[in-house]
């Protein structure tokens, strides 16, 4: 009996140690769904091992475990009730679409009940697609934002393994209409309203995590809720095939920036403010070896033509080169003409790969008085 108790104690300790392993690097090796299932299974094993390790006549300790179990069940019941309420007690409509190379897919979630999503938040999506779909829920960043509660959420899904690969297989079979359940939204919102200068830096699909902030800032500037310099989105495009579908999200911010003001200086609502400057500028960098799609070629040609006509004062600029990250950081922060006019530092919000993150962290450390660096929850 004592050997069994010792074995159970060892299993519980082993489970605790395994739970302490950082999970951020593991999704690159194992599917996210497998790690989530292992995490839940490990938690159940720890609880069972501790319960069996405690002698049956030790009532005080068992009462303590009863309390922990009660808290867990109460929390689970509450989360279940919230999920059922937000899903309006039924499945949601899930529509899938693809780009040409299947390296990512777009998911449109049409909700039965509107939900308010803050910029940068994500949801967990569960789609019943097969025998193992019960463990295939996955977090996805919401790519669109609205000042009101939304009935449609846009998700851009990078295809790896697990649920994302299953979704791609469905699209390949032209099974684009599905059902699903979501939980959330979760995640923190970067306090961009506390700054007068904001730079958004993204690589590839990392732009999905930052475009809601772009939309929010443009809306807030237009409604006179914040006073900021034009928000600068710096985007390294990995592939135009991967990125052209994201244009509709950015187009929303650009169109909103051009709309008439709802609040005027002593004027009626809807009167265009001629003195209000544009609130957004976008710099796109790309290196593409393959021939560009015709729509992309037309877009780049149109942007360069506008830049020549307006003497370089266009909101969208396209550069055929690798993103010169350090040059951009220096020119937009410590070497910027506006640097020092405000007592507030410049906010840099980023969703970039590890090498670029290391560069940003080092730059922010060296210029801590001039720069605040915040990383989005989603990092490519």
Automatic annotation (TrEMBL):
Q: Which reaction does this chain catalyze?
A: 2 a Fe(II)-siderophore + NADP(+) + H(+) = 2 a Fe(III)-siderophore + NADPH
Q: Where in the cell is it found?
A: Cell membrane
Q: Which InterPro entries match?
A: FAD-bd_8 (IPR013112), FAD-bd_FR_type (IPR017927), Ferric/Cupric_Reductase (IPR051410), FNR_nucleotide-bd (IPR039261), Riboflavin_synthase-like_b-brl (IPR017938)
Q: Where is the FAD-binding FR-type domain?
A: 86-192
What are its GO biological-process terms? copper ion import; intracellular iron ion homeostasis; iron ion transport
Keywords from UniProt, A to Z, are: Cell membrane, Membrane, Transmembrane, Transmembrane helix, Transport
* Enzyme class, UniProt record, top EC level: oxidoreductase
Name of the featured protein: ferric-chelate reductase (NADPH)
Organism (species):
Fusarium euwallaceae
């Amino acid at each position: 009996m004592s050997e069994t108790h010792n074995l159970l104690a060892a299993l519980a300790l082993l489970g605790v140690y395994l739970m302490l392993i950082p999970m951020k690097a593991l999704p690159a090796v194992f599917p996210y769904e497998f790690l989530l299932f292992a995490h839940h299974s490990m938690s159940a094993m720890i609880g069972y091992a501790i319960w069996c390790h405690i002698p049956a006549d030790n009532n005080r300790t068992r009462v303590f475990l009863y309390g922990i179990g009660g808290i867990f069940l109460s929390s689970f019941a509450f989360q279940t009730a919230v999920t059922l309420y937000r899903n309006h007690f039924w499945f949601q409509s899930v529509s899938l679409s693809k780009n040409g190379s299947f390296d990512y897919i777009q998911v449109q979630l049409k909700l039965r009940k509107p939900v308010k999503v803050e910029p940068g938040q994500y949801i967990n999506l569960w789609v019943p697609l097969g025998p193992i779909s019960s463990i295939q829920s996955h977090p996805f960043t919401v790519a669109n934002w609205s000042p009101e509660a939304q009935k449609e959420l846009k998700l851009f899904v990078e295809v790896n393994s697990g649920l994302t690969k299953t979704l791609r297989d469905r699209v390949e079979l032209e099974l684009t209409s599905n059902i699903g359940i979501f939980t959330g939204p979760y995640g923190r919102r970067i306090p961009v309203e506390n700054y007068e200068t904001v730079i958004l830096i993204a690589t590839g699909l990392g732009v999905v995590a930052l475009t809601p902030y772009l939309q929010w800032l443009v809306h807030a500037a237009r409604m006179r809720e914040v006073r900021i310099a034009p928000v600068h989105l710096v985007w390294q495009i990995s592939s135009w095939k991967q990125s052209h579908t994201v244009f509709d999200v950015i187009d929303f911010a650009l169109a909103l920036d051009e709309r008439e003001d709802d609040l005027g200086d002593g004027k009626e609502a809807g009167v265009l403010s001629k003195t209000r400057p544009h609130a957004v500028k976008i710099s796109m960098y790309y290196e593409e070896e393959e021939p560009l799609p015709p729509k992309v070629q037309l877009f780049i040609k149109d942007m360069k033509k506008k830049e020549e006509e307006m003497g370089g004062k266009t909101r969208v600029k396209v550069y055929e080169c690798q993103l010169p990250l350090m040059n951009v950081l220096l020119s937009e922060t410590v070497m910027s003409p506006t640097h020092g006019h405000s007592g507030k530092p410049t906010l840099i919000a980023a969703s970039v790969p590890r090498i670029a993150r290391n560069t940003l962290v080092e730059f922010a450390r060296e210029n801590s008085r001039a720069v605040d660096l915040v990383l989005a929850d989603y990092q490519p």
